[in-house]
Design brief:
- It is a single chain.
- By secondary structure, the protein is mostly helical.
- The protein has a single domain, classed as EF-hand (Recoverin, domain 1, Orthogonal Bundle), CATH 1.10.238.
- It contains 7 helices and 2 strands.
- It has helices at residues 8-16, 18-32, 42-52, 54-59, 67-81, 91-109, 128-148, and strands at 2-6, 114-118.
- The relative contact order is 0.23.
- The structure holds calcium ion.
- Calcium ion is lined by residues 33, 35, 37, 39-41, 44.
- The site of calcium ion has 7 residues, from loops.
- Keywords: Calcium.
- One of its GO terms (molecular function) is calcium ion binding.
C-alpha cells in the first residue's frame, strides 16, 4: 500500500502521453486476459473490477450494493466497454474506455490535488493512477535536472 498525490493534470498528462498510456493499457489488458484468447470476456472483466476495486479506488466512493444491483452494475460496465456488442472486449475497446474513464476522473479531480492510498495489485502491476503519478514525478525531476545544469 502506497500513498500518491494526484490532481486532474497528473491524470490527463498520463492519458495524453500515448506511449506510456498504451503500454500501461496493454500490460493491464494482458494481465486481465486470463485465458489468453486476446479478448476480455464478461467474467474476466468482472473479476478485474472485483480484484482492482476500480469502483471504490478510482471514484473514491465506497460501493455497498446488493448482489443483484452489483450484477446489473457489472453488466452495464461491460456494455460500456463492449462498444461493438460482440460479447467480448478487445484491446482497442479496452483502451478507449480506460481513456474515457481516466479523463472523466481527471475532470472530477480538477486542479485540487488529492492524496490517495493505492493497493498493490498483487500481480506486480501498479494502478493507472500510480503510473500517472510516477510519470509526473519523472518529468519534474527531469525538469529540475535541466534547470540546474
Ligand atoms: Ca479472454
Amino acid at each position: 500500500m502506497g500513498v500518491i498525490i494526484v490532481d486532474g493534470s497528473t491524470v490527463r498528462s498520463f492519458v495524453e502521453d500515448s506511449a506510456a498510456f498504451d503500454k500501461a493499457v496493454s500490460e493491464r489488458f494482458a494481465s486481465l486476459d486470463l485465458n489468453g484468447d486476446g479478448v476480455l470476456s464478461r467474467a474476466e472483466l468482472r473479476r478485474a473490477l472485483e480484484t482492482y476495486r476500480l469502483l471504490e479506488s478510482h471514484f473514491g466512493a465506497e460501493v455497498v450494493a446488493l448482489p443483484a444491483d452489483l450484477a446489473r452494475l457489472y453488466d452495464s460496465i461491460f456494455e460500456q466497454f463492449d462498444v461493438d456488442r460482440s460479447g467480448t472486449v478487445d484491446l482497442p475497446e479496452f483502451r478507449s474506455e480506460m481513456r474515457r474513464m481516466l479523463l472523466a476522473i481527471a475532470d472530477g479531480l480538477g486542479s485540487v490535488p488529492i492524496q490517495m492510498a493505492i493497493d498493490d495489485d498483487g500481480d506486480g502491476g501498479t494502478s493507472f493512477l500510480q503510473k500517472a503519478a510516477d510519470l509526473e514525478a519523472a518529468k519534474i525531476s527531469k525538469a529540475a535536472t535541466t534547470t540546474h545544469e
